[in-house]
Amino acid sequence: MFKCCWGVIFTLPLTSFQDHGWSISQSGKLLALLALSQAASALSLPILARQYKDRRPWLWFTLFMQFAGFAGLAFIPEFASVLWAICLGIGLGGCFTLTLIVALDHFEEPNNAGALSALMQGGGFLLAAIPPWFVAVLHDFTGTYKAGWIFHLCSVILVIVLVVRLAPRSYNKIH
């Protein structure tokens, strides 16, 4: 999910806001704020979540932040653009690092945890090529970025549902 959003979120908001009349400088500052929020979240949320065996509430928090950011971009982009950028940054940065940690939580054996992490990373990079292309097709078809943001909203909803399966009691059942 994170990698799928990555290619879109670090390119299209710039042009999306420029379509709304923003300058290159203004939209670039918004992107910088998103990147700073992402880095802060990626570093801080795992520290905050480290004492909890069940990290799903933390993942749901990051997914809610993504949902809020994409909903804002889709439906009221100019209302609180700084807020949407911060929400997306917090959501994407925290979700990425927490997802890697949850993958490692599933196995006590380091080799198995490493194999799962490698599969997630490799598969993630392969899947990450699709959404930017798909959002570009949606933009060409509709003339706006709204459909692309809604596509990401739907993706976030799917992941929110999938996170239910990451219950710690199920970790030892995976072999």
From TrEMBL:
This is MFS transporter. One of its GO terms (molecular function) is transmembrane transporter activity. Pfam families: MFS_1. InterPro entries: MFS, MFS_Cyanate_Porter, MFS_trans_sf. The keyword Metal-binding does not apply. Keywords: Membrane, Transmembrane, Transmembrane helix. The keyword Membrane applies. The chain crosses the membrane at residues 58-76, 82-104, 116-135, 147-167. Coiled coil: none annotated.
